[in-house]
Fold this sequence. Notes:
419 residues, mainly alpha, 7 strands
Amino acid sequence: MAITVDYVILPHLKKEDGTNFIRLRITHKRKSKYIKTNISVTSEHLTRSGNLKNQGKIDLADAEVRKWRGIVDKMPTLAQDEMDVAEVVGYIKAKIVEEEVFRLNFAEYGLELAKTKKDATSWNYKAAVACLCRYFGHQPDISEITVRAMRGFEDFIRKEPRIIHNANVRDFIPTKKMKTENAVAKYTGIIRAIYKSARMQFNEPDQGLMRIPVDIFEYYKAPSIVYSSEPRDIPAEWVQMMIDQRKDLTGRERLAVDTFLMSFCLMGMNLVDMFSCGRAKDDVIHYYRTKTKDKKADRAEMYVRIEPCIKDVMQMYKGSDLLFDFSKRYVNSNRMTTAVNAGLRQWIARNNLEDFTFYSARHTWATLGASKQVGVDVAMITEGLSHSDASRKMDMVYIRKDWERVWDANVKVLGLFRW
Length: 419
């Protein structure tokens, strides 16, 4: 017996407010089942005899009928013969669920998520998504993010050269260097974060709606970032070389050395904070460390006194509305970081030294402060860096930080050099 599908309106099921719903009628072996749709109708949609007259509602009902008939047409004849009408309805519903798989452009979602992150994190999200799209050759749907795909993506990252953004041509240019294992860990970790965010946003377990039912990261374990135990500080002699040579340098090299020295004298102030910091008051800079302000109860609040030895250098980069004029020189702190590290590489090559980055200014300040030569208490160094000490966390809830002591520690560090 053939299976038929049509739509009907059953007058006896009309609600008290006059609303009714179109129902699909599935008939098989002379028995029928009625499936309620979400297409509602009122008397204004019907003729006097109760037939549907509203063309919009007719189109919606016809679309539902075509969908169900399309599945019936693909059913094996023998299977139809063995099924009763209830089994036919169950078969069609299961097929509809299969065909109506949740779709989400994973790349677009990841880029939207990147907009909610801070500068450096946002940049990393964009880089990870771009790398994922290069791996797939297109913007993948979330259904394509599988355990096998993630393993392939991991291998792809290892084999792909590092790519840097060239501001002059406004494009990403491959380099000869290969990505590090930390890049593998960072990119796969970001993809995991995007995937989990999508599950949190689109799944509604209390409603029985699990649009992304499987957490593939229960089966795929992203590599962990390996934190190097090697010190990233530089010898005090190199800092002195910067002080002695800076006036003879030009361009990016001069900018790099000057910003390194300013960061060093400002107790390891990061470039992103130097870029956006407000003006000082009575030679004291007040800011919140961008990197950790969302993770600390005091929002990583910092007060840094400007010492006489660095005032002339800072005057060269004085801003009108901000502490420095860097926002007038560069579009954002990422561009400035690229320029500064490029300048540092020039200075390193000039002096035939081992490689280091701008962040070494912060590590060098801490290392020298804790050295026997200076003898500043490690706890005071921790305060100066705005780092957390788990053993003293409760104490700091009740004890207000004495910045004068921190500034005195900075004076001792800076006193090692001939300015």
